[in-house]
Amino acid sequence: MTIQQLEYILAVDQFRHFARAAEYCRVTQPTLSAMIQKLEDELGVKLFDRTVQPVCPTAIGEKVISQARIILAQAAQVKEIISEEKQTLTGVFRLGVLPTIAPYLLPRFFPQLMEKYPELDIRVTEMKTQDIQQALHSGDIDAGIIANKLEDSFLTEETLFYEQFYGYVSRKEPLSKHDVIRTSDITGERLWLLDEGHCFRDQLIRFCQIEAVKVSQMAYHLGSMETFMRMVESGKGITFIPELAVAQLSEEQNELVRPFAIPRPTRQIVLVTSKDFIRYSLLNVLKEEIQAAVPKDMLSLQSVQYLL
Q1: Which residues of 247-264 are buried (b: 16+ CB within 10 A; e: fewer)?
Q2: Model-level pTM?
């Protein structure tokens, strides 16, 4: 049994397809299949049911795969211990980021970070909060950037900054005549929101005390924040955007932005890792680069803000 074989069975479990798993592992499919077959022969069991599509683990395969994750995570920690001891910023670092954070935060620090530390391979994946939490538990990512703390005993969480929400209002909406938005002015039927499962949506529905989102909006439940902004610009409805998104707007687009009345709804942007994470030198550099890239007044919660 080898580390490489364990990596192969995890890849097949992830993709449920031998060819895609081989591509991910950067080997030929015959090589990957032969190595998995060799492991099965050694163990005397079948790890995957190849008679179904997509392929799936057998009952005993599930148990072996679960143990393989633990073994590979512990093997990776050996290298991480050495890297941390030398305080070298090299190797692969897997980062999960919320889709409502990534487009606005990453351009502020990521290019500079890569230029400063060219031997560091940061692989970013956009993921919802629940997926980030799961991936941290399974060891599929090293860290996550989320909105608000999870209070998960398996995880360590550290605040990066605080970010206000703003309204983005069509010129055809009555709200466009207001200088600020009050929650009593908002009704679900004119509001473009992300689909359920996005904490961005859930936080604002609670803050605005919206009982339900109208059926007319459900056709757009798979939309992105950028899609909804284009809808607003074309003359229909309102949506919500985070503070860092405002900085990317043109002068014309900024005319559609409206702040909330005090107290202003605000989210806490958090860097989260598992408690057994080792590479704190790398993590501290990441935190410092992010905090240096956002406005200084976002580093603390202001008296006019309301933390969701």
Answers
A1: eebeeebeebebbbeeeb
A2: 0.73
